[in-house]
Amino acid sequence: xxxxxxxxxxxxxxxxxxxxxxxxxxxxxxxxxxxxxxxxxxxxxxxxxxxxxxxxxxxxxxxxxxxxxxxxxxxxxxxxxxxxxxxxxxxxxxxxxxxxxxxxxxxxxxxxxxxxxxxxxxxxxxxxxxxxxxxxxxxxxxxxxxxxxxxxxxxxxxxxxxxxxxxxxxxxxxxxxxxxxxxxxxxxxxxxxxxxxxxxxxxxxxxxxxxxxxxxx
Amino acid sequence: xxxxxxxxxxxxxxxxxxxxxxxxxxxxxxxxxxxxxxxxxxxxxxxxxxxxxxxxxxxxxxxxxxxxxxxxxxxxxxxxxxxxxxxxxxxxxxxxxxxxxxxxxxxxxxxxxxxxxxxxxxxxxxxxxxxxxxxxxxxxxxxxxxxxxxxxxxxxxxxxxxxxxxxxxxxxxxxxxxxxxxxxxxxxxxxxxxxxxxxxxxxxxxxxxxxxxxxxx
DNA sequence: GTTGATATTTAGGTTACCCTAATATATAAA
DNA sequence: TTTATATATTAGGGTAACCTAAATATCAAC
Lengths: 217, 217
Prior knowledge:
By secondary structure, the first copy, chain A, is an alpha+beta fold. Chain A folds into three domains: 59 residues, Arc Repressor Mutant, subunit A (Orthogonal Bundle), CATH 1.10.10.10; 76 residues, Winged helix-like DNA-binding domain superfamily/Winged helix DNA-binding domain (Arc Repressor Mutant, subunit A, Orthogonal Bundle), CATH 1.10.10; 75 residues, SH3 type barrels (Roll), CATH 2.30.30.90. Helix content of chain A is 45%, strand content 19%. Chain A is built from nine helices and eight strands. A six-stranded antiparallel beta sheet of chain A has the order 3-8-4-5-6-7. In chain A, helix 1 packs across helix 4, helix 2 packs across helix 3 and helix 4 packs across helix 5. The longest helix of chain A is centred in the middle third of the chain and has 23 residues. The first copy, chain A, is globular, with a radius of gyration of 18 Å. Chains A and B meet through helix 5 and helix 6 of A and helix 5 and helix 6 of B. The structure holds a DNA duplex.
């Protein structure tokens, strides 16, 4: 299994490919590659049994594909805990490091690392580490864009992509914060939030808000 | 820089490519690839400025190539220390793990890891970690095959290739042991040693003894 | 100095992963 | 229901890193 293929499986999981068909374009966007390359890769992943692909519709992970993706994400998050807790990295620096390390981590190494870290439940971005908890969390949390107007929620997880993390940091948003969606303007692609702690108004792009997960309180 | 190219630089350093021309065949053997592939890769490494190549003779590392190789080896050895000291791995299990991790380790990560490990001097196989000490050690130590008959020496370093480590373990040899070469049979490719601690006679293949480094006491 | 053994290179081919340009399909709007 | 737009696929090409088979260079022995 190449790091490249592993990346496809992981992205597929992150885009909901466990339960829904993910269109090629979304994968192409997230990985910054051309759509024909995605088509080609999907055919290869189908042949290897990781993915079910319906031409012109999109791809879903098989059970094997889902399990593989979850293991990768677990490794990624374990490294993030290590980098932050023991090596003193800043939360928004660890993603690219873990992105590399995850592909070089045997099952044995992951298990030993997990024990060494004393079985942490969450990564620094709020993502569940145990592969069982992972699916549960995926199902329970909701995109910020789907939160009901006026109902306060708690930010539980931020998709850990470098540029995104800096965007959220610049808007003073972090895990655990309570926010209330007060307005939605689809034309301008804007979401207006009230920050529970500071009571300030925050405006962020809806497209980007998709990468923020919230839980009801 | 691809992991593949990094492996070539590292092997070149390990085979003495810092000071001498290394023939293609040795590289092909150590990496288990065909000689034509080595020729091809050497041309590409020359173009990138890592290597000076004389056709039909062999390759030498440039200063840049040497520095790059030393940084890789440092990362490799740092991971080995971490795996043994903190994750409880066995010495002969860590090589393949570190072999993967070294290619996924930024300079920043290596520095932080080194500080976390409290600046260890040597890896579990006896290899120096600081890039300065590394060359020094390389120059001072001598292959077991070159030790003078009857003169006791101390095993200082074992090239950490998985199969070799198991071979040395099976012959009850480890770092720090005092041994004396008592006989050499080139026809049978045999080296006879006297083990300083147990006073037992040990016979190992000369070919394999090349991967054992010793220091005079 | 020719010969033979060994090492190296050249020639030609494969697979993985990426691309652009052109074509085809699906979907939403008129 | 046709048409426009967005999305996906096919066709054709490129580079990196491997391979085998055949040709060539080196070097030591005669």
